[in-house]
Design goal:
Glycosyltransferase, GT2 family; Spore Coat Polysaccharide Biosynthesis Protein SpsA, Chain A; Glyco_trans_2-like; alpha/beta; transferase; 299 residues
Length: 299
């Protein structure tokens, strides 16, 4: 198969069975026909595997693997969809649910972009997740735009990606390959979008919408987040350096330490954190930076 208009959806799931069910329902309800749905089960232990065995739909394929994080899941899924020959690959985590016309509205922009993203709205309060930002390759930090470009326009261009609804064409995948598993979580889609932007205008539109689900509304920093967000900044810097030679700034370290200090102070002052949690999180941040430096030096 190598039909430029065929659609394969890739969903990565891990221990969020109820959210996965809602996500799949949203996919199956799409107004634009989907040819294939590949579900990557990252070793879930909450009954997800048993539930997936009950799905008896010819377009659904289940791949169960050990927990390789979101990065490993999307690597497997995008690679499989590409090898099958599908033209468009629509990727998402299990905690989103696309509106019925989400895919149809994304495809309205296929002449403008081969890598597109929908607007996301938090389902618990209908708040818009203002994702618009521009990645600064000198500092490896985002420049936040707060969706200002969408106030008077239906779409804008960014230079990065998000695996919560990204629709990408196989022509771009052919050039940039598959997401790198070394990230585990955090940063894999950022790099993927940076590379995609070298070959197409990466588009973000408010005409296509999906819900982003939250089981608990919390701003607490998680241990995995504390570690991988900092470690992976160095992986990101290492991986994109060859595309932007000589353009890296000393601001990378200044911004890194400023951000880390800010998060440490947030944890220390946060009444929602116990003493053991504070100790764990700060240790994870520091270890993430140390491990990241080692990875970067071994480039």
């Amino acid at each position: 198969m190598n039909n430029s208009d065929t659609i394969c959806t890739v969903v990565v799931t891990y221990n969020r069975l109820e959210l996965l069910k809602q996500c799949l329902q949203g996919i199956l309800n799409q107004s634009y026909p989907i040819d294939k749905i590949i579900i990557i089960n990252n070793g879930s232990t909450d009954g997800t595997g048993e539930y997936l065995k009950t799905l008896n739909l010819p377009q659904i394929e289940i791949i169960t693997q050990e927990n390789l994080g979101g990065a490993g899941g999307f690597h497997t899924g995008i690679k499989k969809a590409y090898e099958y020959g599908y033209g468009w690959i629509w990727v998402m985590d299990d905690d989103v649910e696309p509106f019925t016309n989400c895919l149809e509205n994304l495809l309205q922009f296929k002449e403008k972009s081969k890598c597109m993203h929908p607007l996301r709205i938090f389902s618990d309060n209908n708040e818009v997740f203002k994702w618009e930002h521009y990645f600064d390759h000198r500092t490896c930090m985002p420049i936040i735009h707060h969706n200002i470009s969408l106030e008077n326009k239906d779409y804008c261009y960014v230079n990065t990606a998000c695996f919560e609804g990204m629709l990408i064409h196989r022509d771009v995948v052919e050039k940039i390959g598959f997401p790198k598993t070394e990230y585990f979580i955090a940063g894999d889609d950022t790099e993927y979008g940076i590379l995609a932007n070298l070959y197409t205008n990466v588009l973000y539109t408010k005409k296509a919408v999906m819900y982003r689900k939250r089981t608990v509304v919390s701003h607490k920093i998680r241990p995995l987040q504390a570690y991988y967000e900092y470690r992976n900044l160095f992986i990101l810097r290492k991986n994109i350096k060859s595309y932007f030679p000589g353009s890296f700034s000393s601001m990378f370290y200044k911004n890194l330490y400023k951000d880390c200090f800010s998060k440490i102070m947030t944890v220390l002052k946060g009444k929602e954190y116990s003493f053991s949690e504070k100790k764990l999180l700060i240790g994870k941040m520091i270890k993430g930076i140390r491990d990241g430096k080692k990875i970067y030096k071994n480039k």
